[in-house]
Specification:
mainly alpha; Non-ribosomal Peptide Synthetase Peptidyl Carrier Protein, Chain A; two-stranded antiparallel sheet; 4 helices; 2 strands; 71% helix
Length: 127
Amino acid sequence: MKGFKQFLMQGNLIELAVAFVIGAAFATLVKDFVSAIVTPVLNAFSSGSGSQGLGFKLKSGQANTFIDLSAIINSVIVFVLTALVVYLLFVLPYKKYQAMRGKDAFAEGPSQTDLLVEIRDELRARR
């Protein structure tokens, strides 16, 4: 039981849980912002009726053939804004935190070529 408690209380798991909850809450905030502010602005540029929004009908006279471009644009905006805020609020501070601790948060290891050269040299040395 002690090991399980340590696992639950280790820093990375707690940070991940907090980031997940805040990210989910922020995604809802961005979605509501886009649907309340951006969608009406996009719909203002629509030449058709305001109820359908920015888009076009594949077959005139049939509402179920309407392709809503504003919904697609809204989804892209929500994704980009959410990714930007997660990057600014979580990734950058975490990188700075790791740098203060002397660790590179996203350090890249040796490339595949470097590893293969190292293996080759090791095999040559054994001969």
